[in-house]
Task: inverse folding
C-alpha cells in the first residue's frame, strides 16, 4: 500500500470511528506531495471545485503549431508534424463567484530560491493586462523538495520580476516568497485549496 | 486590388478629405466578411481590444493528445504523432472590466438555419457552469453566405439546445436567431465589436 493510499485509509477509518487523526511529532505536512506533480495536484483541485460547483477553472491545452496532418478521415486525423509553441498566456484561467481568475503554476527542486526563468516575459505581460482589467492574477510556486506550495498575488510578485529586469538576482529566495505569499497547505480533498486564499484576498 | 484593400483605401481617402463615405444603394454591409473566416475576424477584434487595453480575450489552443515526440534537443522537439481531442470547454475566454467572458464562435454556409451539431454537449455543459459562477457566457454565430453575425446570450440559446434534446429540430432558424440575438455589424476596426453588445447586456 502506498503512503497515499495509507493516508486515505486512515482518514476513512477515523471518519468511521469518529476518532480524531493522531498528531504526528514530525513537522512534515500530513498529506504531502507524495509523487504527484504540482500540475496533477492543481488539476485534481480544479476537478474538485468543478464537481462541487465552487469554481470553473481549466488548464489551457499546450499550444502547438501543427504543420502536417494525415486525413484518412477527419474523425481520425493524425498529426504527423507539429512543434511546441511558447505560451502567450498563463496555463490556468476561469471564473469564481463572478471573478476572473488567471494564474501560472510552477515547481522547482531548488531548496533556497525560485528561479524566475520558469516564467516567460509574455506571461508576465499577460498577467499585467489581466490585473488592469480587474481580473485576479496570481502565481502558485511549489518547492517540491521542501513540500511547500505558495500563492503569490501578481502585485506582490511583480517587484521581484522587475528587480531581475534591472539587473538584480534571477530568482526569489524562499524567505522572500514566504514573506510575500500565503502558503497553500496540502490537504486530502481538495489537495491544494488555493481558493481559500483568494477568498481572504479578494472577498 | 482586392475589395477589402479597396474599402480601406476609400476610408483612408475620405478621412483625409473629410468626405463622408457615399451611401450605397445595395443592402450589403459596407465592410462584409470578404474572405475572412469568423475566427480571423474574432482574433483580429481581440487583438484590437488587447492593444487598446479594453479587454483581455484569447482563443484557447486546439486541444491535442500528444503521443510521440522526437527530442533531439528540448528546444526543437518535434511532435511526430498526435491526435485532435474533443474540446471540453469553449474556444474563447477572458476578462472585460472585471467580468469573466466565455464564448464559442461558429459559422455556417446554411442560409436558413444554424445547425446545432456545430456545438459539443461538453461546451454547453461548460457554459452552464460558467453562468452558474456569474460568468458571462454567449455564442457568436456567423451566416457567412448572408454576411450576418449574431451574438446570442447563453440563456437565450439554451432553450433551442433543450428543444433538440427533447426531440425537436436540430437547428435554430435564422428568424429565431434574429429574434433572440443581437446582430454584430461588420466594421473596419474592430471588425466585430461584440463588446458593444456585452456593454448593453451586462453593464
Result:
Amino acid at each position: 500500500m502506498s503512503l497515499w493510499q495509507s493516508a486515505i485509509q486512515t482518514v476513512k477509518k477515523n471518519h468511521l470511528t469518529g476518532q480524531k487523526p493522531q498528531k504526528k511529532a514530525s513537522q512534515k505536512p500530513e498529506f504531502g506531495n507524495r509523487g504527484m506533480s504540482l500540475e496533477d495536484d492543481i488539476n485534481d483541485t480544479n476537478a474538485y471545485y468543478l464537481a462541487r460547483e465552487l469554481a470553473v477553472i481549466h488548464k489551457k491545452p499546450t499550444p502547438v503549431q501543427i504543420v502536417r496532418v494525415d486525413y484518412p478521415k477527419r474523425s481520425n486525423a493524425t498529426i504527423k508534424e507539429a512543434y511546441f509553441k511558447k505560451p502567450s498566456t498563463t496555463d490556468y484561467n476561469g471564473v469564481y463567484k463572478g471573478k476572473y481568475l488567471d494564474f501560472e503554476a510552477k515547481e522547482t527542486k531548488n531548496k533556497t530560491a525560485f528561479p524566475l526563468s520558469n516564467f516567460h516575459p509574455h506571461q508576465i505581460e499577460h498577467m499585467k493586462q489581466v490585473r488592469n482589467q480587474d481580473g485576479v492574477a496570481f502565481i502558485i510556486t511549489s518547492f517540491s523538495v521542501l513540500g511547500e506550495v505558495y500563492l503569490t498575488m501578481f502585485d506582490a510578485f511583480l517587484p521581484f520580476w522587475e528587480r531581475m529586469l534591472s539587473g538584480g538576482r534571477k530568482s526569489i529566495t524562499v524567505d522572500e516568497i514566504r514573506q510575500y505569499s500565503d502558503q497553500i497547505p496540502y490537504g486530502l480533498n481538495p489537495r491544494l485549496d488555493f481558493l481559500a486564499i483568494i477568498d481572504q484576498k479578494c472577498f
Summary: Residues 1-30 of chain A have pLDDT under 50 and may be disordered. The first helix of chain A runs from residue 3 to 17. The radius of gyration of chain A is 20 Å.
